């Protein structure tokens, strides 16, 4: 059948169904169209729909062989490519879509995918930073803008949000997630998916969202990238899976990406339990599972598949619908069916999912829907988008320490601004900078200039040597200290020092695990010298992960965690340092005192020997404290909040908790009020604390407000080792406050049945 006759067939279905109710009709029409298409497709075309290629010029994984690249366009013409990634810009997209639609036999449009992780052209804070805002509206808005910009460049599918819960600051990819907590992670997953997909996925400015990586990637052993993960069922169901469930149930994410890692010995791409039994079975997911880049073929290295054919067999049996860049489905699936090794129905099911996605995106109605040169001209990097990026960047900053009220800056003091990162216009863009222009962020130095601050700048030392790129290892300066002397002199001559230290954008992200998580290179030495020269030092930390800031915390009076905040970083940091904005961010990940404590997280299970009054034989280190440097949920403000009147009241469906929060300082500020629960006795040991609610509120100086939370079966129950959700009546502790170390608490007895 030619493309023309296919569309006549489709038209025929439309006439046939003309009498039916509109919604039902479109559903029936869609199903009929998909059935007709599948019936028409050859095995090669089916396997092709399940194949995704990267644009040869812009790769986000190991480069494929050159010969295969040359073939890619020919393959599109033969109708054996369902989707491409990394092709960006309306003209580039148009060229390939035209081949698929006008030159292939069935004319099936392709989906254009891209890693739109924290912005397309306007860079927003890295996701870990945005999580520190705990502001779900801002986070949703950030994803919305990313989706407007990406779709204006022809993209209709993003591989985001990354929702891997992780307790591993050594793992570079924590920059891409929402941190260590499943509750916060679930809320943020929902916000991000809603932002990307909007109300109507077929609209020209909304794009399909991907929940990734399914599953366990955040638990890679020793934080080493691509490593194996061994996770028990309780951790799997209570910690890793909740953001996935939420993103599907509450926001209807249309796609899920599996993962590079093995989970309990099975590569995620071939994991039948995860993909078929759980996701598509128990959870009823009807969208597309896409593999990660080459994760199909990597099952050979894992020692799970014998060869490429076996890898294709195992991936499709495992439930992985679309193969990204392994190039095993297109060449291997047809013969696997012909040889009777796998059932064609498996291909049909996967193809149906892919075609459904294309219908959802409106591509069958108009394959060129996302190709609009006017939008590309007018909707990128707009003033409105930059203003939104500045707002969320301000709210993502976390004030870690402020002794002697060094901050906010008074505006009358002289300042020495020190550190290569203070003058860096690139690092704030973050790791997944999509289509951002290199060196286009506002640096701290520029932020100071724009605010009219009186300062002298000294770099002190370079952070990296040469140019860092996404596809190459970064070289850090470990020897050149030639600028130290000037930096020390500048520090001595100023009233206060603002020193900006941390990681280059390309020291976190994929393939960027670190064994030591202090300041790289000669920065720690610079910090100590500068602090000696002038103790009135404010340390601003730019990083994509929690760093070990223990020396700084013990010495430096003021510390600001500023992550990689996107295009508006310099303005946002200046806004916070000057007090134009009162910081309100709270840590989404625990900051360890030393790397030996890792993994360290707030929702741990107690040991049988927690008592610090016992000599030797209790759960501790002989050379380090148990407590982290800064706990999950922690962050200061230029004002202070007092919590009181913690009350609990029995309700039909649970327990209502109320608390009074008062701004007891002298300026307005925002506080993230956090509610934690501890189940004292249960059929399995339960975490010491678990976040079960939060609300962000702004209070004027002296103002107070009473907030209420509900604890239902959902918040008080848990998944048992079989993966069943259970609620067990009993005694629970409730904690409310401004961090996971909140002290205000009350015991509740929940002995009534909760529905
Ligand atoms: C590999 C990463 O793990 C994944 O998250 C990303 O979406 C793909 N590469 C595509 O770039």
Structure description:
Helix 17 (383-396) packs across helix 22 (569-578). 32% of the residues lie in helices and 18% in strands. The protein has a six-stranded mixed beta sheet, sandwiched between helices. The termini are far apart. With 755 residues, the protein is of the alpha/beta class. A hairpin with a 2-residue loop joins strand 7 (262-263) and strand 8 (266-267). The protein folds into three domains: 3-377, TIM Barrel, CATH 3.20.20; 383-597, Glycoside hydrolase family 3 C-terminal domain (Rossmann fold, 3-Layer(aba) Sandwich); 641-750, Sandwich (Immunoglobulin-like). It contains 23 helices and 27 strands. The model is unreliable at 7-20 (pLDDT under 50). The chain is globular, with a radius of gyration of 27 Å. Residues 60-61, 85, 115, 159, 212, 292-293, 510 line the site of 1-deoxynojirimycin.
Descriptors:
globular; 32% helix; five-stranded parallel β-sheet; alpha/beta; 23 helices; TIM Barrel; Rossmann fold; single chain; 3 domains; 755 residues; binds 1-deoxynojirimycin; Immunoglobulin-like
Question: Hey, roughly how much beta strand do the residues contain?
Answer: 15-25%
Rg to the nearest angstrom? Answer: 27 Å
CATH topology grouping of the largest domain? TIM Barrel
For the largest sheet, list the strands in their spatial order. Answer: 11-18-17-16-12-13
Shape: globular
Approximate helicity band: 25-40%
Give the cofactors and ligands.
1-deoxynojirimycin
What count of structural domains?
3
Distance between the termini: 55 Å
Query: What's the CATH architecture of the largest domain?
Result: Alpha-Beta Barrel
Main sheet summary? 6 strands, mixed
What's the tally of helices?
Answer: 23
For the record, what is the CATH homologous superfamily label of the largest domain? Answer: Glycoside hydrolase, family 3, N-terminal domain
């Amino acid at each position: 059948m030619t493309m023309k006759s296919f569309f006549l067939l489709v038209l025929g279905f439309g006439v046939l169904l003309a009498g039916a109710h509109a919604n039902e009709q479109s559903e029936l029409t869609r199903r009929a169209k998909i059935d007709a298409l599948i019936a028409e497709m050859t095995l090669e075309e089916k396997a092709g729909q399940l194949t995704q290629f990267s644009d040869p010029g812009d790769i986000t994984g190991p480069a494929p062989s050159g010969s295969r690249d040359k073939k890619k366009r020919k393959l599109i013409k033969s109708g054996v490519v369902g989707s491409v990634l990394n092709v960006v810009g309306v003209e580039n997209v148009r060229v390939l879509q035209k081949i698929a639609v006008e030159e292939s036999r069935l004319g099936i449009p392709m989906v254009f995918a891209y890693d739109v992780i924290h912005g397309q052209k306007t860079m927003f804070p890295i996701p870990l930073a945005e999580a520190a805002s705990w502001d779900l509206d801002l986070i949703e808005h950030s994803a919305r803008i990313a989706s407007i910009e990406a779709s204006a460049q022809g993209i209709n599918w993003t591989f985001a949000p990354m929702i891997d819960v992780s307790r591993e600051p050594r793992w570079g990819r924590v920059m891409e997630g929402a941190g260590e907590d499943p509750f916060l992670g679930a809320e943020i997953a929902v916000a991000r998916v809603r932002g990307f997909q909007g109300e109507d996925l077929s609209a020209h400015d909304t794009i399909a969202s991907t929940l990734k990586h399914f599953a366990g990637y955040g638990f890679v052993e020793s934080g080493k990238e691509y490593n194996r993960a061994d996770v028990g069922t309780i951790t799997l169901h209570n910690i890793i899976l909740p953001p996935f469930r939420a993103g599907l149930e509450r926001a209807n994410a249309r796609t899920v990406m599996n993962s590079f890692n093995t989970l309990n010995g099975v590569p995620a791409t071939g994991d039948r339990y995860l993909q078929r039994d759980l996701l598509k079975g128990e959870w009823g997911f009807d969208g597309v599972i896409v593999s990660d880049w080459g994760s199909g073929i990597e099952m050979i290295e894992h020692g799970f598949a014998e060869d490429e054919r076996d890898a294709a067999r195992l991936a499709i049996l495992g439930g992985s619908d679309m193969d990204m860049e392994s190039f095993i489905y297109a060449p291997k699936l047809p013969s696997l069916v012909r040889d009777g090794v796998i059932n064609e129905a498996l291909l049909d099911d996967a193809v149906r999912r892919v075609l459904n996605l294309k219908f959802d995106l409106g591509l069958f109605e108009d394959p060129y829907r996302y190709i609009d040169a006017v939008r590309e001209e007018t909707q990128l990097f707009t003033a409105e988008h930059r203003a939104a990026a500045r707002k969320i960047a301000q709210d993502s900053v976390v004030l870690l320490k402020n002794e002697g009220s060094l901050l906010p800056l008074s505006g009358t003091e002289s300042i020495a601004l020190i550190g290569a990162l203070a003058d860096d216009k690139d690092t704030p863009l973050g790791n997944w900078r999509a289509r951002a222009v290199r060196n286009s962020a506002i640096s701290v130095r520029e932020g100071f200039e724009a605010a009219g601050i009186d300062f002298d700048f000294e770099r002190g030392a370079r952070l990296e040597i040469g140019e860092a790129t996404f596809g190459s290892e970064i070289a850090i300066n470990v020897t050149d200290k030639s600028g130290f002397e000037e930096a020390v002199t500048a520090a001595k001559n100023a009233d206060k020092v603002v020193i900006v230290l941390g990681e280059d954008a390309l020291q976190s992200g994929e393939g960027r695990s670190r064994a030591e998580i202090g300041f790289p290179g000669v920065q720690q030495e610079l910090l100590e010298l500068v602090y000696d020269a002038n103790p009135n030092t404010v340390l601003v930390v730019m990083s994509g992960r929690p760093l070990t800031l223990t020396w700084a915390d013990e010495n430096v009076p003021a510390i600001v965690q500023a992550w990689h905040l996107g295009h508006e970083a310099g303005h946002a940091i200046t806004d916070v340092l000057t007090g134009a904005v009162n910081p309100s961010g709270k840590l989404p990940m625990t900051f360890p005192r030393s790397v030996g404590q890792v993994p360290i997280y707030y929702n741990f299970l107690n040991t049988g020997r927690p008592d610090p009054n016992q000599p030797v034989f209790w759960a501790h280190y002989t050379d380090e404290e148990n407590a982290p440097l800064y706990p999950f949920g922690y962050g200061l403000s230029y004002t202070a909040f007092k919590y009181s009147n913690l009350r609990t009241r029995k309700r039909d469906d649970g327990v209502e908790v109320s608390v009074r929060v008062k701004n007891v300082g002298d300026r307005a500020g925002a506080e993230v009020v956090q509610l934690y629960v501890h189940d004292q006795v249960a059929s399995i040991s339960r975490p010491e604390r678990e976040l079960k609610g939060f609300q962000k509120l702004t209070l004027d100086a002296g103002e107070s407000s009473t907030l209420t939370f509900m604890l239902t079966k959902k918040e008080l129950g848990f998944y048992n080792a079989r993966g069943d959700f259970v609620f067990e009546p009993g005694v629970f502790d409730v904690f409310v406050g401004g961090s996971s170390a909140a002290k205000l608490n009350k015991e509740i007895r929940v002995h009534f049945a909760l529905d």
